[in-house]
Amino acid sequence: MQLSGTKEKLEEFVRKCKEIGLKITPQRLAVYEVLLKSTNHPTVEDIYEEVKKRYPYVSLATVYRTLETLERIGLVKRVCFWGNSARYDANLSEHHHLICERCGKIEDVNLDQEINIPKHFHGYRTKGYSVNIYGYCPKCQSST
Ligand code: ZN
Ligand code: MN
What we know:
two-stranded antiparallel sheet, Arc Repressor Mutant, subunit A, about 15% strand, 5 helices, 2 domains, binds zinc ion, alpha+beta, binds manganese (II) ion, three-stranded mixed sheet, Dna Ligase, domain 1
């Protein structure tokens, strides 16, 4: 869970918004807060449903735009996996994913082994790496 740093991260968001002259609205804050508090890599619709509980008049378009902005200023990452709709992640630390091919659950996972990716690789200047491990989650295994 990332609950411990939520307050600091929200403060950082406010600071970044001021820096780039972006208006801080309660809805925008709520979108980011929902993402910070979730560990299941929600879709835009998931986030929208959650924000709507607090702000019934928020629109899906606002949630979309807010996510785009958060992505642009580097506070949120979009994780896309084949066959799934876009999922969002506010965990920016280097980590890997366990993905259930049946229900689409995506969990953060750390690996014991480090893979040594060269700084220069096939003509690329590398920034990092992320491993996707596919399979069936415990719940889906027991329902087969
Ligand atoms: Zn599953
Ligand atoms: Mn993640």
